[in-house]
Amino acid sequence: MPLLTVVDLTESSPFDQPPETRTFRSEDGAFLECVRDGEDWRLRRVISTCLSDYLDPRFQPGKKIDNREWIRENR
After folding, report:
1. Cα–Cα distance between 55 and 61 in angstroms, integer?
2. Is 2 helix (H, G, I), strand (E, B) or coil?
3. How many of the other CB atoms lie within 10 Å of CB of 45?
4. Contact indicator for 70, 57 with CB cutoff of 8 Å
């Protein structure tokens, strides 16, 4: 019998340390949630009300984010 659950089966364990995440803000005002990948940041998701931010090739999920070029840290 299949197990029907809302838990993502690709998750390792609830006891694993969550990855380090940080939210950056683009020059256009979109919020970019990124996850630490060694010394780099990788884009996890875009938070914006502007459709063009989701279509922007710079904001593709999984893409390496260089925060020195065009984004500033949102504190």
Report:
1. 11
2. coil
3. 13
4. no
pLDDT higher for 67 or 60? Answer: 60
Assess whether pLDDT exceeds 80 at residue 37.
yes
- The ranges assigned to domains in the chain are 21-65
Dig out the tokens for 71 from the structure. Answer: 């984004």
| Most confidently predicted of 8-12, 38-42, 44-48 | 44-48
The DSSP bridge pattern shows strands 64-65 and 40-47 to be: antiparallel
Alpha-carbon gap, residue 55 to 30, rounded angstroms: 12
Does pTM top 0.70 for this prediction? no
